[in-house]
Amino acid sequence: MERIRPETEEELAEAVRGAEGPLRIVGGGTRGVDCRDDLPELSAGGLSGITLYEPGALTLVVRAGTPLAEVEAVLAEEGQRLPFEPSDMRALMGTEGMPTIGGVVAANVSGPRRVQAGACRDSLIGVRFVDGRGDVIRSGGRVMKNVTGYDLVKLMAGSHGTLGVLTEVAFKVLPAAETVAQVEISGLSPARAVQVMAAALATPCEVSGAAWLSGTGRVLLRLEGFEASVDYRTQNLRLALADYGRAEIRADSAQVADMWRELRDVQPFAGRAGDVWRVIVKPTDAPLAAEALEAEEVILDWGGGLIWALMPEGTDARARLSGIAGHARLVRAGPETRGRIPAFAPEPEPVAALGAGLRRRFDPRGILNPGLMG
Description:
By secondary structure, the protein is α+β, with helices and mostly antiparallel strands. The protein is 30% helix and 24% strand. The chain has 14 helices and 18 strands. An eight-stranded antiparallel beta sheet has the order 14-11-13-12-16-17-15-18, with helices on both faces.
């Protein structure tokens, strides 16, 4: 398979303009791209480096191929972080390489802190990308004929390379937490767990993570901030949840951070046989969805809005979830399963028509990750 790795934005644009057929767009290659693997691979991994960082303005501009670890290290030196807590899927997916910041944006990767800080797209304030014609587009800069009114930043987040190849992204960042702690309640059913998480998120205690693990039956509720504030809020949260069972406080910041890092990266499923599905539902529907899945193990995140499910190989989770509103994505599976179950579910006709129209606008030749999202 041909691999194309430009070192500059113009080289990348030339590669797209000169393409004679479809391309497989990748970043660090750690999350897997469910596009034809016989296509020439175009990687933005050669476009690396931070172009602007103003800690006082909480603003970061970085080239798309920059390793995520490098971005996080630079921010950490200034006591700051990406608000949306991007995951590292290498252990789960069994992949190598380095996750890139462009790949994070392309997949709109958003970790447990989404319940408090929003998704990746909510922190994204600017993008540069090369469209399917090979033209360089900058949000807020170049005016594109017939696309007035499109929010290019929001469109690119989660587009998985089907609208353009990201070359540069800009974020608003936030101060890192001084300390982190969590409140735990054990022995809960999915229905009871969702009630607990909803109650916790409704308090003024500023919960930054709310998850339940079927393997232990524990609800984990994370709180972050200044040490005195975290101590005060964890005590209040424990009292507020007294009716749901015995709540315990885990105050070891390093231990709690490690636990949430493992949950963020879905490490409980890493190295285990089976397919992995990512399911988005209304939190109140999570218990019903978890029951319908009949999974070997599930993790409820985002207060129940996100379900990670470890399923027997070859299981079509969408069929089991029939009648439950939401969407399910096949994240990890073998070639045989991927050959008959698409990673992304077919979209309702109006949504599919809108997506097809956008792809025609930005990629009229249909060469960027064709067939990936419809």
